[in-house]
């Protein structure tokens, strides 16, 4: 498939995968994108997952016709993109492998060789001329691994953005970009907001007409929309008006409290209330919603003098991704020694710029007049 006169798409769709990166449910599969630039010299941009070796090599061959590739540019060493470097190197023994120094160290670890006799080490600001296309390399450490470079083609004004601007989902899936891009971003790159901000600053200096990521569709229109979302996400800003309530419930009493709070919030005019049962819903979906909205309610039971395991995991998912700049409300339930609110607060201690909403709602086993009144007061406080 041709993207521009000289850039061809040679990636693959994966509908067989059970869990992406060993943990993410991808109902609509996954795409591993790869590209070829055909100029006086030809350059291949990254490879694909190991299971698609033959299909990818076939796509490459078809795009090249009777030519052979001069360069393989390795932007990212995670195996969903790098697994076929060695197969490529063996198929095309004259091609030069182009990557950052850190990427070659990883190649040695993965493949037992760093291609010392046929490599080109590049760093921030280096360029590679293919003829009419000049590729400029831009360092993007920790978006999403330390060795990452992204590549700007000034001829076609294309940014090859590695994992940046990627999403879950195969390319033949018809689905909203933002939903699966947000789940992907916060799941995979969310911890590295500052590094993404650095990359966005560098990208702002380039004249970009098209973004070619390693996952998800090629972005060609309304680039401002995607860049603005990345600005919001990477600066831990609030994307949408509304409140997320994340809960666990053992026998339904905490759930009843959450449902009552959601009802009150909606009745009082909250534009969007998202309620998530952490034991039953996709954790990555819950994480993206926590980052999407500015206010978060956490409701859980006291459990083994700690909190219910799914809430413990959820809070860890947030803190390890640098959750910040939010208002958080706490609801605890306990039949004899409720301590969940205290435990949740302590677990959130590392989060920057958090306002805890009052009151903390305490349920002793089941809702009563007192806890209902606390929910009413909390609803008012959250909408103040
Ligand atoms: Fe798509 Fe970080 O690999």
Describe it.
- With 384 residues, this protein is α/β, with parallel strands linked by helices.
- The protein has two domains: 7-234, Ribonuclease Z/Hydroxyacylglutathione hydrolase-like (Metallo-beta-lactamase, Chain A, 4-Layer Sandwich), CATH 3.60.15; 243-382, Rossmann fold, CATH 3.40.50.
- Helices cover 34% and strands 25% of the residues.
- It has helices at 53-64, 79-82, 85-91, 101-111, 177-189, 193-204, 223-234, 253-267, 283-292, 309-319, 340-347, 369-382; strands spanning 7-9, 12-14, 19-20, 24-25, 30-32, 35-38, 42-45, 71-73, 96-99, 119-121, 127-129, 134-139, 149-153, 158-160, 210-212, 240-247, 273-277, 293-303, 306-307, 324-333, 352-356, 361-363.
- The strands form five sheets. Strands 16, 17, 18, 19, 20, 21 and 22 form a seven-stranded mixed β-sheet that branches.
- β9 (96-99), α4 and β10 form a beta-alpha-beta unit.
- It is elongated and about 80 Å long.
- It starts with 6 loop residues before the first strand and ends with a helix.
- The structure holds MU-OXO-diiron.
Annotation keywords:
single chain, about 375 residues, alpha/beta, Metallo-beta-lactamase, Chain A, Rossmann fold, seven-stranded mixed sheet, six-stranded mixed sheet, 22 strands, about 25% strand, elongated, binds MU-OXO-diiron
Largest sheet: 7 strands, mixed
| CATH domain class of the largest domain | Alpha Beta
CATH topology of the largest domain: Metallo-beta-lactamase, Chain A
Alpha-carbon distance between the termini? 53 Å
Q: Domains counted in the coordinates: how many?
A: 2
Which regions are unreliable across 5 or more consecutive residues at pLDDT < 50? Answer: none
The percent range for strand residues is 15-25%
SS elements, strand count: 22
């Amino acid at each position: 498939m041709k993207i521009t006169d000289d850039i061809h798409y040679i990636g693959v769709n994966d509908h067989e995968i059970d869990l992406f990166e060993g943990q993410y449910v991808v109902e609509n599969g996954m795409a591993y994108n790869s590209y070829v630039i055909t100029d006086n010299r030809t350059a291949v941009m990254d490879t694909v997952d190991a299971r698609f070796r033959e299909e990818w090599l076939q796509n490459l061959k078809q795009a090249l016709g009777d030519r052979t590739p001069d360069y393989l540019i390795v932007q990212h060493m995670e195996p969903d993109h790098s697994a076929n470097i060695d197969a490529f190197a063996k198929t095309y023994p004259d091609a030069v492998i182009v990557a950052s120094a850190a990427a070659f160290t990883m190649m040695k670890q993965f493949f037992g060789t760093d291609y010392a006799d046929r490599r080109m080490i590049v760093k921030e600001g280096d360029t590679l001329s293919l003829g009419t296309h000049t590729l400029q390399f831009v360092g993007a450490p920790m978006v999403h691994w330390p060795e990452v470079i992204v590549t700007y083609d000034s001829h076609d004004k294309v940014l090859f953005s590695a994992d940046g601007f990627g999403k879950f989902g195969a390319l033949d899936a018809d689905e909203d970009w933002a939903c699966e891009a947000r789940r992907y971003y916060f799941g995979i790159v969310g911890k590295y907001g500052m590094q993404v901000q650095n990359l966005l600053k560098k990208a702002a200096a380039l004249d970009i007409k098209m973004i070619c990521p390693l996952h998800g569709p090629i972005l060609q229109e309304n680039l401002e929309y995607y860049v603005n979302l990345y600005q919001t996400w990477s600066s831990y800003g609030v994307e949408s008006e509304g409140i997320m309530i994340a809960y666990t419930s053992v026998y339904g009493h905490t759930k009843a409290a959450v449902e009552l709070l959601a009802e009150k919030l909606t009745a009082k005019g909250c534009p969007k209330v998202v309620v998530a049962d952490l034991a039953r819903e996709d954790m990555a979906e819950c994480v993206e919603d926590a980052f999407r909205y500015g206010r978060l309610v956490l409701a859980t039971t006291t459990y083994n003098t700690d909190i219910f395991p799914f809430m413990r995991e959820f809070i860890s998912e947030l803190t390890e991704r640098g959750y910040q700049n939010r208002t958080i409300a706490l609801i605890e339930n306990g039949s004899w020694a409720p301590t969940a609110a205290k435990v949740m607060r302590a677990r959130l201690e590392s989060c920057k710029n958090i306002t805890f909403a009052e009151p903390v709602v305490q349920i002793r086993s089941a809702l009563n007049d007192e806890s209902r009144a606390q929910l009413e007061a909390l609803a008012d406080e959250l909408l103040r």
